[in-house]
Amino acid sequence: MDKFDVIIIGGGPGGAKAARVLAAGGKSVALVEDAHWGGVCLNCGCIPTKMLLGAAAPKGLLRGLERQRVATGTVEVDYASLQKRVQRYTRASSQTLAKGLRDAGVTLFSGRGVCAGPDAVRVMAADGGEQALSARYIILAGGSRSASFPGLTPDHDAVLDSTDLLNIPLVPESLIIVGAGAIGLEMADFFSAMGCAVTVVEAAPQLAPTEDADIAQELQKLLGKAGRACLTGVRASSLLTRDGQAVLTLDDGRELTAAKALVAVGRTPNTDGLEAEKAGCGLNRRGYVMVDDYLKAAPSVFAIGDINGKTLLAHAAEHQADYVARQILGLESGAYESGPVPSCIYGSLEVMRVGKTARQALAEGGKVEVSRAMLTANAIAQAGGDASGFVKVVWRDDRMAGIAALGHGVSHLVTAAQLLLLGQYSGDRLHSFMFAHPTLDEILYAALQAPREPAV
Fold this sequence. Notes:
Blueprint: E1 2-9, H1 13-24, E2 29-33, H2 39-44, H3 46-67, H4 79-103, E3 107-110, E4 112-117, E5 120-124, E6 130-140, E7 144-146, E8 159-160, H5 162-166, E9 174-178, H6 182-193, E10 197-202, H7 213-225, E11 229-232, E12 236-242, E13 245-250, E14 255-258, E15 260-263, E16 267-269, E17 296-298, E18 301-303, H8 314-328, E19 342-345, E20 350-355, H9 358-364, E21 368-374, H10 379-383, E22 389-396, E23 399-407, H11 414-423, H12 442-449, E24 452-454
Parallel strand pairs: 1-2, 1-6, 2-3, 6-18, 8-15, 9-10, 9-15, 10-11
Antiparallel strand pairs: 4-5, 5-6, 7-16, 12-13, 13-14, 17-18, 19-20, 20-23, 21-22, 21-24, 22-23
Helix pairs in contact: 1-8, 3-4, 3-6
């Protein structure tokens, strides 16, 4: 049995970050990964999706300038070449990540990690081989995968999951997307830009269900103007392949048919077959590993990233990984504090948020207000051809609780918004924060200075 100070199950953003920090701190580390180094984010999630959106971005810019009657033309994306570029980039990045970890002194194991006790892990190789490892600490960082529901299960024919769609060899003529979260909206944006007729179906009353209603309503209005069909507040009862087509049946009896369909109804943790219970861990009813305020799942076991269900974002996994690694190294003693978590939905129209929504602030009680600034007042937004959307600030008891935005390029505001929120730069204090001119960032200043109104 090979012995280490720490065994990490999962080589995605969280597992890789924890491994690097621990190795730099002098610990012997085993990192176990059963699919690809870098996890879903690098190989079949965040990164390939953004590369697709980046390739299609000039189409959106041109449309905006055409509306202003200052430019005409066409932008053609070679989809086959784009797919090859994405595959080369992700494959090379995964290989570079693995090499960097080895160079840092991390021992890599390819195979499925299975808990065998509070200090033991079995690595099940693809060829049927098995290796036993032991360690003082175990970190569970196995991530998540696409979720499905009865009647809404990808058959990998015409009904696809997000990995299937990312690898599809040809742009379909039509596409149904079930689910209007980040994955669904980003896929809709790219394939719509590529000429595919896209219909988005969301069971919740609004698109982007985790955001405030005003953001969602404006988003749906703008997407409608762009020719994208969005159905909200409607439930799907079944989705299947029929005669080579994807057929979606809604609860009200309507049927929608398209060449392909994407099931994007959320994520589910990779705890099946992990046998986390043998390490002393408990799972909640949705299958996530339960953790305490220190991200401990058992006295010598931690769970970070998607697998604990706290925040399903790659940068949240890395932040938790750094905290846990520093805790093992004796550099952290307090409970885990995430601070205001930044999140974005990318595409020709973007959604950015740091901190709480107005809905969350209202649920907590107190005096809740919002202030807004429209992007039409910003020179950089106007110069880009699309100045639709706005920035809003959520105030709770006269303190900033959150900042959100909708519009072209607003993901670029996320770091400045986080710094403003962390530093509580408002009122007289805002004058110590200098904004460059002209920038999109100035819209944050305008939103902070705008009149406040009660949140509803």
